[in-house]
Write a structure and sequence with these properties.
With 193 residues, the protein is an alpha+beta fold. Helix content is 17%, strand content 15%. It contains 3 helices and 6 strands; from the N terminus they run αββαββββα. The chain has a 3-stranded antiparallel β-sheet with strand order 2-1-3, with helices on one face. Strands 4-5-6 form a 3-stranded antiparallel β-sheet, with no helix packed on it. β4 and β5 form a beta hairpin. The longest helix has 14 residues. It is elongated. The N and C termini lie far apart (64 Å).
């Protein structure tokens, strides 16, 4: 193959990964300890730390779970506890529950009661203190997932969430502008089970 062809092939491989070509061996490194020709040792890959991916709130008594949101782990934990105050909860993180793990790296599937809710109803295992499937109601003023600028449907129409200069104060709400109200006036409602 002419030199130009070899260069193009290498460039193509560099850009597109060789498309099926065998990977090259890692470069040899000469170490001062006399291990000439040894390959560099790869540092152990750290397991994905908690906080990445979707957060899931898990009821530990039966493994029932639901997605939870929040700007940071502390607010996600607060939301989880707020929605399910009658039972112990734990956060797990992952793209889906089958690949989710606790902040210490323990997979959801290895929790003592993972998926137990699929086989039986556990007496006394409840989020709201009344039944096995309901969540506890949270007043909108104390909803830890709300952020400044969120639009909320209130008793008197749409309102926009805001915070005062004191971040510790609860949310305050002001009526949404006419343009915001107009945008959401004709939102289709779809029933789902």
């Amino acid at each position: 193959m002419p030199a130009a062809g070899r260069t193009r092939g290498r460039l193509f491989s560099a850009l597109f990964g060789g498309l099926g070509a065998r990977p090259h061996a890692p470069p040899q490194v000469v170490l001062p300890s006399g291990n000439e020709g040894a390959y560099p040792s790869e540092a152990p890959r750290a397991r994905a730390s908690y906080g990445g991916g979707q957060a899931w709130c898990v009821r530990t008594c039966d493994g029932r779970y639901f997605p939870i949101a929040g700007p940071d782990n502390q607010s996600r934990a607060a939301s989880c506890n707020s929605f399910c105050p009658a039972s112990e909860t734990k956060l797990v993180y992952g793209s889906d529950i089958d690949n989710a793990a606790t902040e210490t790296g323990k997979p959801y599937s290895e929790l003592p009661n993972a998926f137990r809710y699929r086989k039986e109803i556990v007496n006394g295992c409840t989020c709201n203190g009344k039944d096995q499937v309901g969540l506890a109601p949270i007043s909108v003023e104390n909803d830890p997932t709300l952020r400044k600028g969120d639009i909320v449907a209130g008793a008197n129409g749409l309102v926009v969430a805001g915070r005062s200069a004191d971040k510790r104060a609860s949310m305050n709400f002001s009526p949404a502008s006419e343009s915001v109200q107009a945008r959401y006036r004709r939102v289709p409602v779809v029933a789902a089970e």
